[in-house]
């Protein structure tokens, strides 16, 4: 791609910051718009212009010089979305509606949206494909699906070129050429790999295993993990694939699922630390297997993960999590 200018909403967060770094390394100009409600100012990669603000105010910052928007800004905690659904409808749907309006007014006609495989809800088949039914089981998934519908209508009515990327568990860390490493640091943390790493660090006494009687090889839930750098590369490829008037939806996955016990054992091997387990009851709504098919992404984006090895994903996350980082 020749050098272009991009707006990255939510670019101070985990995934958005890594995508922003990849864009800069490809020679593009990047503006990050983030209200820092969950992101970190230190996460904005060196070389990016930073604007502290909400996506509801995107119209103040967008102009025709931007080639496209990559949209990551969202509230994303499933449990919180159940307790505070109004926050998710306002931030995710209201914010995205304001962003689409701002793009229309500014003449910015390309969008890559960070969607989620939570839009599918309980899977009807494995691996999940883009043609499977969408029946989200949380307000978080419902708001992301609503935004996908909004984007589709925008493409039909106004010729927007858009790609939505749906994925489950992002993991690992990315060392940018600038020397800054981006990794997971959610507050509160709810993702399995960083939680298990907290046990290795001694900041958490044990890891809870929620059910060991699922119909899987070792009885624990199986999930799809994708390295954050692979995910970033998919976003850059989506910019090339976006076509006027089309809303392309692509699932992203590593092609394999890993069980909770496989993740725990891999952390033991990578860190050299014992990881005590505590058995707990199943959590309501936890499917046995969640794995996405990435065949559409392979075909339409020319994308395939190059960092699908679980030990490598964990090793990168461990390098970021250690105190000496």
Give an overview of the whole structure.
- This protein has 325 residues and is α/β, with parallel strands linked by helices.
- The protein is built from 9 helices and 15 strands.
- Helix 3 runs parallel beside helix 4, helix 5 packs parallel to helix 7 and helix 5 (192-201) packs across helix 9 (310-321).
- The model has no long low-confidence stretch (mean pLDDT 94).
Residue runs with pLDDT of under 50 for 5 or more positions: none
Going by helix content, strand content and strand pairing, the class is alpha/beta
Main β sheet profile: 7 strands, parallel
User: What characteristic shape results from the CA principal axes?
Assistant: globular
Cα(first) to Cα(last) distance is: 33 Å
Into which percentage range does the β-strand content fall? 15-25%
Helical proportion, percent range: 25-40%
What is the tally of helical segments? 9
From N to C, what is the helix and strand string? EHEEEHHEHEEEEHEEHEEHEEHH
Oligomeric description of these chains: single chain
Tell me the number of strands.
15
Q: What is the topology, as strand order, of the major beta sheet?
A: 3-2-1-4-5-6-12
Mean pLDDT: 94
Round the Cα radius of gyration to an integer and report it. Answer: 19 Å
List keywords for this structure.
alpha/beta; globular; 325 residues; 7-stranded parallel β-sheet; 19% strand; 15 strands; single chain; 9 helices
Task: Provide a concise account of the structure shown.
This protein has 325 residues and is α/β, with parallel strands linked by helices. It is 35% helix and 19% strand. The two termini are 33 Å apart.
């Amino acid at each position: 791609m020749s050098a272009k200018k991009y707006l990255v909403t939510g670019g101070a967060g985990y995934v958005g910051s890594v995508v922003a770094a990849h864009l800069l390394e490809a020679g593009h100009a990047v503006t990050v718009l983030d209200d820092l409600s969950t992101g970190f100012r230190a996460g904005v990669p060196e070389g990016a212009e930073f604007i502290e603000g909400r996506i509801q105010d995107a119209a103040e910052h967008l102009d025709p010089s931007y080639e496209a928007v990559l949209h990551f800004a969202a509230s994303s905690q499933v449990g919180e979305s159940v307790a505070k659904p109004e926050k998710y409808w306002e931030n995710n749907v209201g914010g995205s509606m304001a962003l689409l309006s701002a793009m229309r007014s500014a003449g910015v006609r390309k969008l890559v949206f960070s969607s989620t495989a939570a839009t599918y809800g309980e899977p009807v088949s494995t691996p999940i494909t883009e043609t499977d039914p969408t029946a989200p089981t949380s307000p978080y998934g419902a708001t992301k699906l609503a935004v996908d519908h909004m984007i589709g209508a925008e493409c039909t009515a106004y010729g927007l070129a858009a790609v939505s990327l749906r994925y489950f568990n992002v993991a690992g860390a990315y060392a940018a050429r600038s020397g800054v490493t981006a990794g997971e640091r959610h507050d509160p943390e709810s993702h399995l790999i960083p939680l298990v790493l907290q046990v290795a660090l001694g900041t958490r006494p044990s890891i809870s295993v929620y059910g060991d009687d699922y119909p899987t090889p070792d009885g624990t839930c199986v999930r799809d993990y994708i390295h954050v750098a692979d995910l970033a590369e998919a976003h850059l490829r989506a910019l090339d694939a976006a076509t006027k008037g089309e809303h392309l939806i692509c699932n992203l996955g590593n092609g394999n699922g890993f069980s909770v016990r496989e993740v725990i054992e891999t952390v033991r091997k990578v860190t050299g630390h014992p990881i005590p387990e505590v058995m707990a009851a199943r959590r309501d709504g936890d499917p046995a297997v969640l794995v996405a098919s990435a065949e559409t992404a392979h075909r339409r984006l020319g994308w395939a993960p190059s960092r699908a090895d679980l030990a490598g994903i964990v090793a990168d996350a461990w390098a970021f999590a250690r105190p000496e980082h």
